[in-house]
Amino acid sequence: MRPLQISAETAQKLSKSLNLPIEQIMHMPQHILIAKLAELEKQENNGESE
Known about the structure:
Strand content: under 5%
Number of helices: 3
Number of domains: 1
Radius of gyration: 12 Å
C-alpha cells in the first residue's frame, strides 16, 4: 500500500487533531482516515451545539 499523497503540513495537522503519530497517519488506508475525520467532525459539531 502506498503512503497517502498528502503534504507534511497536512499530516502534522491530522496527527495533532487525531492524536496519532505522523507515521500512522501516512500509512493509514484512505477510507479509514476519512472515517476518523468524519468522526472527529461529528464530535466537534456536537460540542458546539451544547
